[in-house]
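Tutorial handout. Part one gives the primary structure; part two gives the three-dimensional structure as tokens.
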Amino acid sequence: MTDRIEGVNRSRIKWCCDERDLSIEELFHQLGISERTLNEFIEDKPALTFTQLEKIARKFNRGVLFFLEPEPVDPVRVHTPQFRTIMNQKPTLSPLIRTLIEKAEKQRDIYMAVQEELGEESLKPWRQRLPRNIREGSIGERALAVREWLDLEGVKDFEGYRQKVETQGVLVFLSNGYAGSWQIPKESTVRGFSLAHDIHPVIFIKKQRFPAPQTFTLFHELAHLILHRKSFADEDEDLFSYQGKEKEANEFAGMILVPDKYLDQVDVKLLRIGEIENLDADLENYRKAWGVSTEVILRRLMDEKKISKLVYQSYRQWTDANPIPEQAGGGARHRFSEPLRIFGRSFVGSILEAVGADRLSLNKACGFLDNIKVSDIHRLEERRARL
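Part two.
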């Protein structure tokens, strides 16, 4: 018979279950652990094998030793200040989103450790790296300064914008578009979150059907990091808010993506304001040139009082009532290149560099890169080199 582990801290397993809104019975059932073992566990007998405890640890993104520590869980030690800040703002976030926040924190820790292993110089606090004209002034002045700092002129797609932000020390993660361990489900209202760290803050974005909404989420979260210096989780309603910090983040993101010199190119007299369904066509050339959605352009026109709030709201109501039908199939997806799409070039490049310098084993690298196969590492390197 396989040895059962003594000293498993049942209260820590129960705490993890409560965090995920799971019962102990549901946990054991999901992990394929027998009812007999469940009964022994409930009766406070040595019940779990090391393999079973490993399954539980993986389920909750913890190490095995976490469940062998005798003390009760101290949430202040377990959760980062960034996680606690978000949970104070949005206490009803689903267990899945809470898990993604924790996983994003761990990926950042991995990145920091690998950077240190590679001998990279420690960066000064991220905010101190911002030029003064980004840290001070009106929202419009600071937004223009961000465009110059990131060198955004000519950028017109999500990946281009993402790379510019990553270049300035921000880790930008994008959720799985399919059912995977990094997915924000389609039905979730969460559009993204930001983790405000002094060094290498993190922005996490929900994968959207079209890239333009991802771009706006990227700069909305960047706005929180720059303007508010706090961690945030944002839902659909927050990205259309007219109040408080969310309003500021929306205005800031809009001004970065559509500065005044762009907005002045739009002749409002030529827009078919009375035919809301034609506004997408009227603004198509601008959308493509700037890599933004019709909604973002209309929001900027509204903020500058070039169109009424009623026009903007009517467009949003029309798009909500007339969603573009889902298409069967979808684009080809290559598993070996998924880490680049999810974690971005900075993170993946650091891991591959560490492997090449014999600072990181292939097996560990695969684990850090969404558990791709060892045989896929070389193909991933080739894909990154072509970008």
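Part three, for discussion. The radius of gyration is 23 Å. Residues 337-386 form one domain.
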